[in-house]
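Schema walkthrough. Field components (list of strings):
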Amino acid sequence: MNIAPFALLFQSVEDILLEKQRLQHNYQFLSYGLIVAWLILVVYVLMMVSRQNKLKKQISDLKAMLEEKH
Amino acid sequence: MRNKILYALGAIALLILIRDILGIAQLPDEKYQGAIFKIIFFHVPVAITALTASAVALVASVLFLVTKNFFFDALAVAVTEVGLAFLAANLITGSIWGRVIWGVWWAWDARLTSALVCWLLYAGYLMLRHAIEEPTQRATFAAVFSIFAFIDVPIVIFSIKWWRTQHPQPVFWGGGSFPKDWMPFFLWNMLAMILIGTIFTITRLRQEESQRELDYLRRLAHSM
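Field assembly_structure (string):
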């Protein structure tokens, strides 16, 4: 009995599974990349907001102190 | 008024990005690299934004040395800090892309190394500013350092032309291929990133103005 056609069938199933795995792996890393890129920018925005609040508070405290001295 | 303009620019950038992300998700996977190739829509625009920021920092630093106007010093530090954040995003997305395509997170080739050196130089610029107390001396030293740091930028850009690198040849100006119908998404994303960079820079610039006001109030409090 010639089993070559069956061997080919099994080979293609394995290939499809490998390809599916490769694609999933690809999507997984694409999402990691995008999440990290946006995370960096979001963290930077949060740092700026925190710095802004700190500056505002320091300025208003100093102004209040100067007014008291006057 | 200035706040309204900033919010409007931010809203435009967000709309462009949302529209682009939805469009990019619909695009088919690239023939050889698959889905990971789509990271190019962020990897390259953040790099171009970062390198544009370093060019602005160079011009601002030169103008500070010529005019001694502290606005240019504030602009240089604002744009450098924003550029550093974008370059970090570029390095990390590149590393993730490399992990899939090359099988390694990092390769010490000319492009990657020069980009890392560029990041370190600009991080050094910010550290230098923290180390000097006197404002005029700080601004002058920082401006000279920024001009020196910019020497690395052309090396980052042309490294893939000058040396054989693990990093591929440029997709847009050197034999690489980029599907033509993907181009509009790329250009819109580019515009969105530049807009975001501009908004960050203006916000950071205003913080420098507040910092200067704070320094003035401190001096006033000391003299009383």
